[in-house]
Design brief:
20% of the residues lie in helices and 24% in strands. It is built from 19 helices and 37 strands. The strands form nine sheets. It has a five-stranded mixed beta sheet, covered by helices on one side. It is extended. It starts with a helix and ends with a helix.
């Protein structure tokens, strides 16, 4: 061995020790980055077997080595998963078992012996299609469901032969209890501590059980006692792996390790199955340079009773050859697709694979599109041909038809049109479509539809018949009453696709007649008019009167049919009966006369029950603030005044400020001079209250609010008798930009003044607000302007005009 190889092996051992047992290499320290890179470089140059051998020589398991390597940032699994250095051999010399190496990631056995699938990125996830049809059978291998993976332990077949590397679990219990897991060695033996070596290779599990019972009974006599006192159980804890080659048209050819249960079908799952070019009909199992079986995978896919699949043995070769043929089948069949046929298989076998035809398949012919084989082609002639095969001969005469590689078979649909039927609709008990019988007539069809309904219109029916061109239709009327007698010419002989229409009496009568009732009834609305219906009947249907109904007046608006158009007349009732009094109901008469017909209602009658004008519920108002008894009050009359309510509430308290009183109605303030109302009740200033009014009387505020273009805005104390400009002066006077003054009195009235010469100067009441602005103020929100505001504005304008005239005269 060269110095370089010795150095490489020594350095790898040192690196593996450092990776797996860093405390033994450098105390409590991780590898440096240079050491990690050196470890990766060295690992790349070694095969998985070489790494495994080094780990075993150090007494380190793969799992422990992978965990320790991961702590140092090295993915040891990537070096152990079959990636070898270029040029390394894939099979050891001397016919040794297959090594898991090569350019592809192969499946291997885990510790439990279960088959591991090849990496997902190496397996196709979709089956290709051609001409819109899927390749049959290949989709089975797109995934590897666990149901197809052979178990590595547990129950086994009764004929399974124990061999080297199998692990048996031997359990003894009763007077003696022990359990051991024993591996079968290369000589086919297991070693039992109390009995020594026992040969088990080539035996079934039942035979092993009997052999061990006999062998151990020498040590444990209770095994064969009657009754026994010691019991023995032998199970297979782990099956031995088998190494096979999977070659040919598969997605990941190479060597694989499978367990002893695996057959050819299981093993193909490990490599992702055959490619589209691979045959599913003749997968070969080669053992000892001989083909011992040709497995047809279609037997799995089509549910065949038997198949010729076999269990694989170590060093077996599973070879997938190229597809034998490719034929296409489409149209009205159960499983359209692309199939592979063996020599001697033709249309019948293809239909069996495709699940057969559908009920709507056309049975007269199959259309075959064929590529002319190369040996049969003639120069300068067509290379494709179309063939129509008589499908009925295949079905009835047991004739088959030969198909060749590349054929496209199309099964057509029968016509969707159905002709042997007639239909009936309208006033019969069971309308619908019925089979047309020979000699079937109109009466027969009506009887099949469970006869006519009571509302049938007997004078005339319609028969819609399709013409021979199958496009146009004609209408044939018939006398329905005569046709039911069965002997007249109206009992028409029916033809295919005839449509019979039976009308109801609604053609000649208004069936949905109604009346409507409005006003003071509990359930106003529309009600169906029945024969002899009267006003009393409708009142009952409408739930009777409401409590505000007037019993003195009712009205019916009725349409009167006239020769020159319809008119509406009004029928008045001077009184209505008490619905609780039977005598009153029975004696109720129409006031214009006593004829019976006068009381019967007609179609479209509109009934109005008027409300009693004198009926009112309690009208509530609210008064709060400075009155002796604030709260809600019911208006005693429909025109009760504000002054009366203030008096009913006990009058105002000594602290009340009447000029600041407010009355809100439906969210708006009504300007009222409460002071004048109390001093002069029921005069023009007094106001009639409405339901929902809210009255508020505040305490005396003793202040005036100043705001806007004033030098010192805020609240000023109220001084009785002071006027507007007194308060403005007390607030520091106007600013330079002040032009308009608004005075809002406590009762809501607004007065507007201009600043400057001849501006108004009125008395200010307690609780007023003074607003000074530099732009014209908006119109007051309260309805209208007071007469005082208008007069003051007119005087201000006149004074300004007079001033201008005087100045102009002086300047002349």
């Amino acid at each position: 061995m060269s110095i370089q190889k010795i150095y490489k092996h020594v350095s790898v051992i040192i690196i593996l020790i450092a990776v797996c047992f860093p405390s033994a290499y450098v105390s409590s320290q991780q590898l440096s980055s240079s050491q990690i890179e050196e470890a990766k470089r060295q690992l790349k140059t070694m095969s998985p077997d070489e790494i495994d051998a080094k780990l075993k020589s150090l007494g380190i398991s793969r799992e422990e080595a992978e965990r320790k390597a991961k702590e140092n940032g090295i993915d040891l699994q990537s070096y152990l998963g079959g990636l070898s250095s270029p040029g390394s051999p894939s099979v050891s010399g001397g016919g040794a078992p297959l090594l898991e190496s090569g350019p592809l990631a192969k499946t291997s056995m885990d510790n439990a012996g279960a088959v591991k699938q090849a990496s997902p990125e190496q397996l196709s996830t979709q089956v290709p299609s051609d001409k819109g049809l899927p390749y049959f059978g290949y989709d089975v291998f797109t995934t590897t469901p666990s149901a197809f993976e052979p178990n590595a332990s547990g129950p086994i077949d009764a004929d399974y032969m124990i061999g080297p590397e199998d692990v048996l679990r031997v359990s003894v219990w009763g007077q003696v209890e022990q359990q051991n897991e024993l591996e079968v060695d290369k000589e086919g033996r297991i070693f039992i501590p109390t009995a020594g070596p026992v040969v088990v290779s080539g035996l079934t599990i039942d035979q092993v059980n009997k052999t061990l019972t006999k062998q151990l009974s020498r040590s444990f006599q209770g095994l064969t006692a009657n009754p026994p006192t010691v019991w023995l159980d032998v199970t297979l804890a782990k099956v031995r792996p088998k190494r096979v080659f999977i070659m040919g048209e598969v997605k990941n050819p190479g060597g694989y390790t499978v367990n002893s249960y695996a057959n050819v079908f299981n093993s193909l799952f490990a490599v992702g199955g055959p490619t589209i070019n691979g045959s599913l009909r003749e997968v070969r199992l080669i053992r000892g340079n001989k083909v011992i079986a040709r497995i047809d995978l279609y037997s799995y896919f089509t549910g065949a009773d038997k198949n010729n699949d076999l269990r694989v043995q170590s060093n077996d070769i599973i070879y997938v050859p190229v597809r034998k043929s490719t034929v296409y089948i489409q149209g009205k069949i159960r499983r359209p697709g692309i199939y592979e046929l063996l020599p001697g298989e033709n249309i019948k076998k293809l239909l069996e694979f495709a699940g057969g035809t559908l009920p709507e398949s056309y049975s007269e012919r199959i259309h075959v599109e064929r590529i002319i084989p190369v040996k049969n082609r003639v120069k300068k002639e067509f290379e494709r041909e179309m063939i129509d095969v008589d499908f009925r001969d295949i079905l009835s005469k047991n004739i088959d038809y030969t198909i060749v590689d590349g054929d496209i078979l199309t099964f057509y649909s029968i016509l969707d049109e159905v002709k042997n039927y007639v239909s009936i609709s309208g006033a019969v008990y069971k309308p619908g479509t019925y089979q047309l019988m020979h000699g079937m007539r109109l009466k027969n069809l009506i009887e099949m539809a469970d006869s006519l309904r009571p509302e049938t219109y007997l004078i005339r029916g319609e028969l819609i018949r399709t013409q021979p061109d199958d496009r146009t239709k004609i209408s044939i009327p018939f006398d329905l009453k005569s046709s039911l007698q069965g002997t007249s010419s109206d009992n028409i002989l029916l033809q295919p696709k005839d449509e019979v229409i039976i009308h109801d009496i609604g053609i000649s009568h208004v069936l949905d007649e109604f009346v409507e009732i409005h006003g003071s009834v509990k359930k106003p609305g529309r009600y169906s008019l029945t024969q002899n219906m009267t006003l009393i009947d409708v009142l009952m249907l409408a739930g009777g009167y409401t409590e505000n109904a007037s019993m003195l007046k009712a009205e019916i608006a009725r349409i009167d049919k006239q020769e020159r158009g319809d008119t509406v007349s009004s029928i008045l009732f001077s009184s209505l009966p008490d619905l609780t009094d039977t005598t009153a109901i029975n004696s109720f008469l129409y006031f214009k006369g006593t004829r019976e017909n006068d009381l019967k209602l007609k179609h479209h009658d509109q009934i109005f029950i008027r409300p009693d004008p004198n009926y009112h519920l309690q009208q509530l108002v609210t008064i709060e603030g400075e009155v002796n008894f604030p709260g809600e009050y019911a208006l005693v009359t429909h025109n009760e005044f504000l002054s009366e309510l203030i008096q009913r509430s006990g009058g105002t308290t000594p602290a009340a400020y009447l000029r600041g009183g407010k009355l809100n109605r439906e969210g708006d303030r009504v300007n009222v001079d409460f002071q004048h109302v109390v001093e002069s009740p029921k005069t023009s200033e007094d106001i009639v209250l409405h339901s929902g009014d809210k009255i508020s009387i505040p305490k005396k505020p003793n202040s005036v609010k100043m705001s806007g273009q004033i030098n010192n805005p805020g609240l000023l104390g109220f001084i009785k008798g002071e006027k507007l400009w007194d308060y403005i002066d007390r607030a520091g006077g106007l600013t330079d930009s002040a032009q308009y003054v608004l005075l809002i009195s406590p009762n809501g009235n607004v007065e507007k003044f201009r600043t400057g010469w001849f501006s108004g100067n009125t008395e200010v009441y307690d609780g007023s607000t003074v607003i000074v602005t530099k732009i014209p103020p908006p119109p007051p929100e309260t309805p209208g302007e007071s007469t005082g505001v208008v007069i003051k504005d007119m005087f201000a304008i006149a004074a300004s005009v007079l001033t201008v005239l005087v100045l102009a005269k002086n300047l002349k």
